[in-house]
Amino acid sequence: MLGDALRYPIESDDRVATLVIGGLLLVLGVLVLPAFVVQGYLVRVLDSSARGESEAPSFTDWGGLFVDGLKLTVVGLVVGIVIAVPFVLVTALLTGGLVAVGDSGGNVAALGVVVALVYVLLSVLALVVAYFLPAMFTNFAVEGRLGAAFDLSTVTSVALTTDYLVAVLLAVVLGSVVNAVAAPFAVLLVGIPLLFYGQVVTYYLFGRAYAEGRRAAGLPGIRGGAAASSRSDRV
């Protein structure tokens, strides 16, 4: 799987153009709209890799890429809110508690311990929720429906397999390594396509994690590629 992931972005005939376009879009991401196109491309990577394809997709149907990227961003925002709300509520409650105990040293110290423990638990919860994200993203990508990202039955079945766990960990580690190598060269621009390459490799492994997890969970095989072609017309 590691070798396949590293080769995936450079197997297609238009690999140079794809990496250059992807890198340019990353640079232009500060304008927001190009960032959605990149996210849409990554949706195609998820769909392609989950179906076992060995070559990265090309930049075609830019309108579809934009819509897919917007939908993927919505999924990420919803999950981000789910993670953020407990932190906000707990922070508000604990702030009120600090005001209530006043200057009492012993009470403040005890509350400080409680605060630390609560934030540790919330951080663990955030990691657990984030662990399900690749499965949510890929289920949306292969089904072509925004609602598929929140199909908790399928997502949970996939994510609770060892195959999924191993592939996701590999994606995180490999993506971090590629980004660490590319980052120093980003200021010279030559590293920008490499950063995009790292994103594609990471999302390829996310797609493979979903496919392997789906197989291990005994779920039906992924349907034909029609979902990918009609995704932008569906909610």
From TrEMBL:
Keyword list, A-Z: Membrane, Transmembrane, Transmembrane helix
Pfam families reported in the protein's UniProt record: DUF4013
Highest rank taxon of the organism: Archaea
Membrane spanning residue stretches: 20-43, 74-102, 108-133, 154-175, 181-206
Protein name: DUF4013 domain-containing protein
